[in-house]
Specification:
284 residues, alpha+beta, 66% helix, 2 domains
């Protein structure tokens, strides 16, 4: 650092005057002190400025921290709200799926017996006929009817009659358990079984097995003119591979076979096959 008035001091040394030297020293010291005071003032002023800047920065950082904390709180609240909403939507979706499944079941299932109803039977029969035609497979249909069931209801009451219908439906369901088989309540005391890929001989054997199982249930029916118990009659109809037939063709053939079983004394199974001639005749 250069001291002020150095030239004066140098001149005093040159003149070798003690008074001048003292004066020069005093001037130099005074100048140095003045410069020091100025420097200290500048340092103090700069220090205050830095302290003010630091304080301002701390205030800004504090404000930013408050903003960040507030934002984080809002994000957490929003996240909780969204999670709660998502859980609510999940519950609603599950409830809707459950309701849809129940609705589908109500549409497809007979309320009394718990097996397929007529509407579902019609859809499945149409679908299996198309598949049998496409894959050149046989398709059999079994029509079943409880013998003299009106008299049973008149004798024992409709509540007992409903119990019998449920029991028969359960036996049907336990008898025909292949993956593609469908047992249905066709209406009243009539039941139907769709047997994809099953020819007439096997379908008749399955129907006879069912008839015997109903017989072994030994549900008392003293007023029956057929036997001392509840019995069934059945008609089996089959569409052979390669034959184009409609659901109406198969239903009529099975109904005719059921009628023959009734005429032959009931409590038996009769069978038939949809032929090309019969299909053409029914179509005409």
């Amino acid at each position: 650092m250069d001291l002020p008035n150095v030239g004066v001091l140098s001149t005093a040394f040159a003149d070798k005057s003690s008074v001048g030297l003292v004066v020069a020293l005093l001037v130099a010291v005074a100048a140095a002190l003045a410069h020091t005071r100025s420097l200290r003032a500048r340092i103090a002023r700069r220090t205050r400025e830095l302290e003010q800047e630091l304080a301002a920065r701390r205030r800004v950082e504090k404000e930013l921290e408050a903003v960040r904390a507030d934002l984080e709180t809002r994000v957490q609240e929003r996240t909780r709200t969204l999670e709660a909403r998502n859980a609510e939507l999940t519950q609603l979706r599950l409830a809707l799926e459950t309701a849809n499944q129940r609705l589908k079941r109500l549409v497809a299932v007979d309320a009394l017996t718990g097996i397929a109803n007529r509407r579902h039977f019609d859809r499945v029969l149409d679908r299996e006929l198309r598949r049998a035609r496409r894959e050149s497979l046989p398709l059999s249909l079994v029509f079943l009817d409880l013998d003299e069931f009106k008299r049973y209801n008149d004798t024992y009451g409709h509540a007992r009659g409903d119990d019998v219908l449920r029991l028969v439906a359960q036996t049907l369901d336990e008898t025909f358990r292949r993956g593609g088989d469908l047992v249905a309540r066709y209406g009243g005391e009539e039941f139907a079984v769709v047997l994809p890929g099953v020819d007439g001989r096997r379908a008749s054997l399955y129907a006879e097995r069912l008839r015997r199982r109903i017989w072994r249930l030994a549900v008392p029916y003293e007023a029956s003119q057929v036997a001392d118990r509840v019995t069934i009659s059945g008609g089996v109809a089959t569409v052979p591979p390669g034959l184009t037939a409609t659901a109406d063709h198969l239903l009529r053939a099975a109904d005719k076979a059921l009628y023959r079983a009734k005429c032959q004394g009931r409590n038996r199974i009769a069978s038939g096959t949809v032929t090309i001639e019969e299909a053409d005749r029914l179509a005409g």
